[in-house]
Amino acid sequence: MFPPVNEQIDVIRRGCAEIIPEEDLSRKLELSFKKNQPLTVKLGCDPSRPDLHLGHSVVLRKLRQFQDLGHTAVLIVGDFTGMIGDPSGQNKTRPSLSLEEARLNGESYLAQARLVLSDERLRMVYNSEWLARMSFEDVIRLASKYTIARILERDDFTKRLRASEPISIHELLYPLAQAMDSVAIRADIELGGTDQKFNLLVGREIQREYGIDPQVIVTTPILRGTDGIEKMSKSLDNYIALNDPPGEMYGKTLSIPDSLIYDYFLLTTQATAGELAAIKEQLDSHSVNPRNLKRQLAREIVALYHGHDAVRAAEEAFDRVFVQKGVPDDIPTFVLKAERSAATISQFLALTGLTSSGNEARRLILQGGVTIDGEKVSDPLAPLPPDREFIIKVGKRRFIKVVRPE
Predict the structure, then answer these.
(1) Residue 281 lies inside a defined structural domain of this protein
(2) What pLDDT score was predicted for residue 323?
(3) Which residue of 150, 254, 266, 350 lies most exposed, with the fewest beta carbons within 10 A?
(4) 318 and 279 in one domain?
C-alpha cells in the first residue's frame, strides 16, 4: 500500500521548511509501513478566511502528497476556535466568528480545497465536536499543563506586550485549544505554515501530557504574493485565487517578479526534482528569458486548476489584451441609467465594484491606472463621457463596457 519509507521522506522533504523532529517522522513512517496502517495527517483550517489562493495551496499540496503516499488527511475546521480568533502573525486580535459563520466558511474552504486534495482518504471535522463539550474543570486542567511564560514566547504576543497593546485571556487559550484538536484525533503529523510553528509545538507537548505519541510537525514556507514583497493576501491584492478564471490566473502569474519564478515552480506546481534543477540552472545562467519561464509556470498553474483545455484560451486572451493591446471578448456590461450619469469617474468605479472604494479609485486614477477607451484618466472628479458606449479599464485586468439605455 505504501512506498518505501526513504521514498516517502524524499517526497515530504520537498518544498517544506522544517520537519520536527525528522527522526520521529522516520519512525512513524516505518511503523505505518510495517503495520500497513495510514498515518493521520492534520491540517487546521482558518474559518475566518474562506477564500483560498495559491498561498494556501502550498500547505494543501503538501497534504495532498501525504494522501498520494497512502495516508489519511484530516481537515479540522476551527468553528469553535474561530470564536477566539487566532492572533498568529497579527498585531491585534482577529475578529471572532459565530459557530454558524465558521461552519459556512468551512464548507466554502472544503469546496475550494478539493481543487488540490483528493476525495480519497480525506476527512473534515469541526473542533466544536470536542471543545464545546469541555467543562470549565476540563479547561482548568488543560490550562495547568502549560505556563504563561511559555505562551508569551510567541512573537506576536511579545510584540503586543512591548507595544502595550491588549491581550485577552481567551487569546492565551488558543494554542491550547488547537493542541486539543491534535489530542482528539490523535494526529501523527500536523502541517502548517512557518507562522504556525509555535502552535504546532504546543500540540506536541499537550499530546504528551495526555499520553499520546507526540505529532511530527511539518511546516511549509510562506508564499510571497505577486508584488514579490508581502505574504500573499487578498487584503493586499497580491493574490492568485484558486477559483480565479483561467485568463485572470494566467495574467496574474505573469505579473510576479523574476525573483519568485523558482519558488512558485517549487511550491505551487507538480514540477519534478529534475525539472526544478533545470529551471534553477536556466535562471542562474541567464540562458533563458524569464518571461518564457513565467509563461510555462502560468500554463502549469492554469492546467492544475482548470485543466489543459483552458490553457490555450487563457494564453490567447492574455496576448490579445496585453501583447496586442486588445480588449477581452467577455467583459461585463453595465447599463448606465440617467440618474447615475452625473457621477464622477471615481464614484462610478466604486459603484460598479471595479474598485473597493472611492479612495482606491482616486489613488488608481492619480497613478495612471485607469483608462477610458484607451485614454488615461487624470482627474478623479472628471465626469463620465457623454458617449452612448465606452470601455473603462482599471489596472491591468479589469474591464467594463458602459452602455446607456435606448
Answers:
(1) yes
(2) 61
(3) 150
(4) yes
Residue 371, classed as helix, strand or coil, is strand
Q: How confident is the model at residue 33 (pLDDT cuts 50, 70, 90)?
A: very high
Q: Which helix (H) or strand (E) holds 195?
A: none
Examine the domain organization and report whether 28 and 177 are in the same domain: yes
Let me know whether 345 and 311 are in one domain. Answer: no
Which domain CATH number covers 13? 3.40.50.620
SS3 category, 318: helix
Domain count, the chain: 3
Residue 290 structural domain:
246-323
Model confidence at 92: pLDDT above 60: no
pLDDT in tens, 204-251: 999 999 999 999 999 999 999 998 999 998 878 889 999 999 988 998
CB 286 within 8 A of CB 292: no
Q: Are 197 and 170 in contact (CB under 8 A)?
A: no
106 and 157 co-located in one domain:
yes
**CA 289 – CA 13 distance, rounded (Å):** 29
185 phi, psi to nearest 5 deg: -100, 0
Residue 236 lies in a domain: no
Which cell numbers hold the place of 203?
A: 500540540
- What is the dihedral angle through the alpha carbons of 221, 223, 229, 231, rounded to the nearest 10 degrees? -90
- Dihedral angle, C-alpha 132, 188, 197, 125, nearest 10 °: -30
- pLDDT for 384: 85
